[in-house]
């Protein structure tokens, strides 16, 4: 018992120390970067507002959500706090400016996060199609994967093609150098990551796993995550020459050895430092590598932080 208590005390000290590192860094270096003062007049149509004929796919800093379809997962007040990573529906996320969705499914096509489940993937598709019907120039990256420990839904690739066929941008390396206008009226880059089923092939309406990469760091320590995100990002090629999407996740994750295992209070340790991360990308010389930037519990400021840097790239200021 004494050893356990001692470990918990040390853990709390480590968390407190790491939070102070980010507070001090923010105080000494600030959150200003090219485009940081930009605010889109219409977040629902922010890509349209940046001129689709000028905005290239590889210039976009894509605001994304982590475990996007967990707003109603589990049982409210009982199991939901342990798995919920977003409070908004898919439709509301898209309207606020989210452009990358991270969706996990199990064999029966229900959304899941670990052992907890929620609504069918049909709800995600319906929300996405509603958003697409209300906008004209917004491109969305939809990543759907079979959750770890689960089997692939049968014939799921056919389901996705049937549901989204008219919107799907086919797998093609040339897409990265194109403008949004050159891709329209196609609007969705759908990355399907099965566990055992065959991966989508080149030229397919769906994109294979290698086109969306990240380096997942499983920690609840905010400065550790911040610094590792920066390290891994710095090792990537610049977006101008990259033929895949690379994601940085501004999140930390509850750990079993800590008494706080609900998602929101843990991820809040890093949530407010998105602008600091972008500013530090410039300080460290890797701002030209930032592409997909994802978060838990997305809000307007996170979206605007990403859109601002996108606008600066379009204007040749970053």
From TrEMBL:
Q: What are the recorded GO MF terms, alphabetically?
A: phosphoric diester hydrolase activity
Q: Which SMART domains match?
A: PLCXc
In terms of domain of life, where is this protein from?
Eukaryota
Q: Which InterPro entries match?
A: PI-PLC_domain (IPR051057), PLC-like_Pdiesterase_TIM-brl (IPR017946), PLipase_C_PInositol-sp_X_dom (IPR000909)
Q: Which Pfam families match?
A: PI-PLC-X
GO biological process: any one? lipid metabolic process
Q: Which residues form a coiled coil?
A: none
Domain Phosphatidylinositol-specific phospholipase C X residues, every copy: 51-192
User: Matching Gene3D superfamilies, A to Z?
Assistant: Phosphatidylinositol (PI) phosphodiesterase (3.20.20.190)
PANTHER family named in the record: PTHR13593, SI:DKEY-266F7.9
| Protein name as catalogued | Phosphatidylinositol-specific phospholipase C X domain-containing protein
Species of origin = Salix viminalis (Common osier)
Q: What is the lineage of its organism?
A: Eukaryota, Viridiplantae, Streptophyta, Embryophyta, Tracheophyta
